[in-house]
Design goal:
Helix content: 25-40%
Distance between the termini: 45 Å
Low-confidence stretches: none
Strand content: 15-25%
Strand order of the largest sheet: 1-5-6-11-10-9-7-8
Structural class: alpha+beta
CATH superfamily of the largest domain: Bira Bifunctional Protein, Domain 2
Bound molecules: histidyl-adenosine monophosphate
CATH topology of the largest domain: BirA Bifunctional Protein, domain 2
CATH class of the largest domain: Alpha Beta
């Protein structure tokens, strides 16, 4: 086949079977979040570029290398959202939702776009299930959100899961920490990768996020942010841990979790799933109390997380966690000749109105090909309509598994008869 266009690299087609799993997953996530008081929000996929530059951070990999940014026809720079948080906060402020009762709890399922090197679990278009809580500065809010993430993952029965938490403090803590980092790396700055050399000047904490072997080696004994927390940030983090303890949520404190986006403060966390030695981050989030002011809003404490839908589906598939099977077509109504096509179509519509998944011959197939098709799509029942059936208002309903046939009425009792007959087949 010589298609004139192909799927764009790093983007995926979601075929019907997987789409059903996706829908089930989304439903479970939303149901759990609703129990915790979250309401759905949708925001545009395109935002003004500046929003991400200012929030995700000019020096982050996302903004520096990965954004899909282009000029629209009005010569304005716009960007396909690389993540959900910034757009949600913009929408909250622009629509004055921050003036309503607090806390405000919002959930969303958003496509995100990052021009990363495509590999397993890393796509250029991916979807996040995200939750954001606004106006709740208390550490209970951090714990509540983590509990919710845990209960979603528990409900999905995902195994080999670990929760890693850290606090990256506030601006003041990070100022002192940056000095300590600069001091630590001053003698081996040249041995760091080029990007980390830049990070050392602008955001030294980010060096801990580097995947280059040489940087990992040099950072091994680097200062730990937890030792630079101010009293307030330390108290906040201790309280988060104590709430998690009360809820019996298992976690590890990992001071190397710094997250790849600049807006975080205080608590950050990740849920990581280990699969055959590979570590897959399926959920990441944290507090971002300062972001509202950065993008021109009032003081608005906030915390949230994003779960990668594709990653969760991959983990579930690899852990052989069964999803509900897609609904199979229940009945195929075949027409024996051209004249009966109308009646078959009419009966099919009657069935659909009663929520029975029904199909009829919408191709120009003869009876033999229709039966072949019905076999291929694995229908439970076939009903053949011909002249005689139309005249007698009765037709044989065939149970495809057993081959057994039972006569049912095509008149007023059509649906009633079908449902009763199904029962008899059982
Ligand atoms: P993030 O860690 O960049 O955080 O992304 C959240 C999740 O999205 C990741 O844990 C991962 O499961 C998934 N993900 C990220 N990049 C990709 C990719 N290229 N392909 C497939 N899945 C991916 C955020 O985006 C924050 N907005 C989360 C947040 C919400 N923080 C506070 N509120």
């Amino acid at each position: 086949m010589n298609l004139i266009a192909k799927r764009i690299r790093g983007m995926q087609d979601l075929l019907p079977e997987k789409s059903k799993n996706w829908e089930t997953l989304e439903k479970i996530m939303k149901e759990e979040a609703e129990i915790y008081g979250f309401k759905l929000i949708r925001t545009p996929v395109l935002e003004q570029t500046e929003l991400f530059e200012r929030s995700v951070g000019g020096e982050s990999d996302i903004v520096e290398k990965e954004m899909y940014t282009f000029k629209d026809k009005g010569d304005r720079s716009v960007t396909l959202r690389p993540e959900g948080t910034a757009g949600i906060l913009r929408a909250v402020l622009e629509n004055g939702l921050n003036n309503g009762p607090m806390p405000l709890k919002l959930m969303y399922v958003s496509s995100c776009y990052r021009y990363e090197k495509p590999q397993s679990g890393r796509y250029r278009e991916f979807f996040q299930f995200g939750l954001e809580v606004f106006g709740a500065p208390s550490s209970v809010s951090d714990a509540e959100l983590i509990c919710l993430a845990q209960s979603i993952l528990d409900r999905l029965t995902i195994k080999n899961l670990s929760l890693e938490i850290n606090s990256i403090g506030c601006k003041e803590c990070r100022k002192k920490y940056s000095e300590a980092m600069i001091n630590y790396f001053k003698d081996n700055k040249e041995s760091l990768c080029e990007t980390c050399q830049k990070r050392l000047e602008k955001n030294p904490m980010r060096i801990l996020d580097c995947k280059e072997k040489k940087c990992i080696k040099i950072s091994k004994d680097a200062p730990v942010i937890l030792n630079y927390l101010c009293d307030e940030c330390e108290d906040h983090f201790n309280k988060v841990k104590s709430y998690l303890d009360v809820m019996n949520i298992k976690y590890t404190v990992n001071p190397k979790i710094v997250r790849g986006l600049d807006y975080y403060s205080k608590t950050v966390f990740e849920f990581i799933c280990e699969l055959d030695g590979e570590k897959i981050t399926i959920c990441g989030g944290g507090r971002y109390d300062g972001l509202s002011k950065i993008i021109g809003g009032p003081d608005l404490p906030a915390i949230g997380f994003g779960m990668g839908i594709e990653r969760i589906l991959t983990v579930m598939e690899r852990q052989e966690i069964e999803f509900q099977k897609p609904e199979a077509t229940q009945i195929f109504i075949a027409n024996a000749d051209e004249k009966s096509k109308k009646k078959a179509f009419e009966l099919c519509e009657i069935m659909r109105k009663s929520s029975i998944i029904a199909e009829c011959n919408i191709c120009e197939r003869n009876l033999k090909s229709q039966m072949k098709y019905a076999n291929k799509i694995n229908v439970q029942f076939v009903l053949i309509i011909g002249e005689e059936e139309i005249q007698t208002k009765k037709a044989n309903l065939k149970d495809m598994a057993s081959g057994k046939e039972i006569k049912i009425s095509l008149g007023e009792d059509f649906i009633k008869d079908f449902l009763n007959t199904q029962f008899n087949f059982d």
